[in-house]
Batch of 3 targets.
Target 1
Amino acid sequence: MERRTLCTRIPAMAVGIVGLAGALPLLVEAQVSGPDSAQLGEIYQLQAAFHLAKSLQDIDLLMSLWTPDASLTIPGNPNSPFVGLDSIRAFLLTTGSFTHHRFSLVPSFKIQIDVHGEEAFFYEECHDVQDFDLPSRFIAADTYLAGTLKKVGGRWLFWNMFGGSANPLSINHYYFP
């Protein structure tokens, strides 16, 4: 790099470093340590597996993330709640990610996790991109999944869940409860 270029970039780099230093307390606050950090990491893995299963249209993987006695309530669906793995599976196979090829995205800043022993409150939103590998791709669905997770056999699983529309998109509005 030429000296002239370096000299013109130093003020911008200094502003960037000062800005980063000013943001550092926010970054530190966002980190979690202690006994709950392992629990949160496991729940984030559950959430990631859920979206991978949807994106791959892998119903077996998706169903492995639910307790045997799980329930899924979809407000406005006359057949809801869906109780037990067979009922949830049958419903999910009729929904967007399993009837259309979609890529499931999650705004991580809206995820909420509150652990209480062997149970946890969980909230996320899913924004599914249909035909994601084509130039004509589009946002096909905006939904939420929320409710109670349960730790069974050392694994966090979906237990008493609710799902529905997360429309219109919003940075600060949560669609459940």
Note: Confidence is low (pLDDT under 50) at residues 1-30.
Target 2
Amino acid sequence: MAKPSPFGKESRVKILKQHFAASKVTAGTAWQFIYRELLWIDGSTGLAHLYESDKAQRGRSKWFDRTIRFTELLCKGFGGITKEELKSRIDRLFRACLQELIEIKAKARGAPKLPVELSDEEPDAAEEEPADYVPDAELVEEFASLLVQRAAMPEAEALSLARDLVAKARYFFTVERKRQNVLGEGFEDLLQLLVLQVARVPAKRVIIRKRADTLPGFHGTTTRDRVEAPDMAIVGRKNTDMLASIKWSLRHDRQKQLSDELDCYVDLLSQKRFPRYILVTNEYDPGRLVNADGLARRGQRIDCIYHINLDLLLRVLEDHPKARDLKPLIKAGRLRSLEEFLSDLKQAYGS
């Protein structure tokens, strides 16, 4: 039998439970717990990741300045720490999963060590990189040849740059792609833990990533090719009380996914009333939040969007022209905070 993946659900949940047990997490501090586990430092800016990396570079747009503000506010929110201290206090889930992977591979190779990209220590120039991240020699030669031919680069310089490019590419495809899985599914795992432990919703009522047609009250028929699975559902004996879509960000593809999900649930609905349908997100683009709020299918729409830190959202976006569009949503109770999410669930479904 194959061993569970260090990045898989079993490993993620075990790590999150360990971290939760060592913390004092309340509805009011849950945002800190989420950011400690899932937020990371963007290697291209040295700042906390807020927006798409290519659009948040210095001189590209105002998102770089907002990212600086976001990072500074986080440092204050975590007790007045420095940016260097912030790096060591966030990205804990991914680091722990990666450490498990390295420990597994290191058993036959010597002492385990985090890749330099994630380490808080300064790299030792005399020390070799871990074997997993040594670039492919043939690919380095091909890259170097292209640089000499097309960029007229001196051979020695081309070879040095080619090594760097291939090393970065290898790191991305072997490690950083794992981050997206940890981020997306880890966000769901983490919210489930908070719903159980902070909102005190009974475990038997919380369903994660099960097809909608297996949930109570959704036994209708659909002509769709795919039956969607809500990221989280809260169910009773005969009906489903709440459906939740959990999305760290709301890029165009994820907004389409929201629309597809809602369409599918409307098709399958067999209970009398459509359940409360919510979105939990860390999106900082106000236009995307407004667009998500406006999604509707055959009379059904999102009831509420919960943001990880609503106060931080508004402070980061103080110079964004569309930030004012969020105020009506907040006033109407359609855009709320994570603290309110956990409080709402505790009041409605808590034991």
Note: The first strand starts at residue 41 and ends at 42.
Target 3
Amino acid sequence: MRQIHVLMAAGRADRPVDFEDEPGDCPFCPGNESMTPPEICRLGEPWQVRVFPNKYPASDHHEVIVDSPVHGIGLADLTQDQLALATGAWGARVRALYGLAGVRYVSAFHNHGLTAGASRRHLHTQLIGLDFIPEAIVQEQDFVSSHPGHACDIVEKGFVFRENRSVLGLCPAVPAFSYEAWILPKEPGPMLPQDTRDFAEILGATLRAMNALLGRPDYNIMLKAMPRDWCWRAEIVPRTGYLAGFELDTACHIVSILPERAAAELAEILSKTT
């Protein structure tokens, strides 16, 4: 029998799903700060990024990062500076949660759209601090610690579609989803750097290319970072299909778009827009 971790979070059942809410009713909009738990921090005045505990937590450490005060836009609509401010907060809060007693893994993720699991239209990122390390992360961490060149192998075997001074965007050689894209550093490091402008440039460009290529799909972003024995990366999964019975039964994924084709299509879009 397979072993899985399950978080029992009965309070999540009360979480409202109001994806069509208007700015006046949205707790993430400026002026509605009293509708959220007391904030942990804010960036800018008036604020441009705001962080507070999740009102319906899945764990003892569950935070919401509102990535922009503007209602109804996506990360692809932010400027590089705005995206760097937001992603800088992602990295800072990941580091802060890892500094708490009992937190062994921090899951940082951004859900965009209903089919990606977003319950509100106002863009936001979430962090969940866990008191255990998920088995998939344990397996990769063990592999990374015994294979120091693992990050370089990912780059060598993947299909690069964008790069700048310090960051690469590529489609991994063995994706789990069609058009899956990874963003990772040229110089391996365990945590997202404090200066995230290069990361923001690749992230924004990739999301805009996916919007143009796939018709503004819903998507998930997972920022994977660990304090040691790791190389950080962001995984972007556009929701172009669904997990069906075969995938749920076997944990095997059927990918219909080869990664080299996905990378070539993304690169072509980017060549026309930059």
Note: The first helix runs from residue 80 to 98.
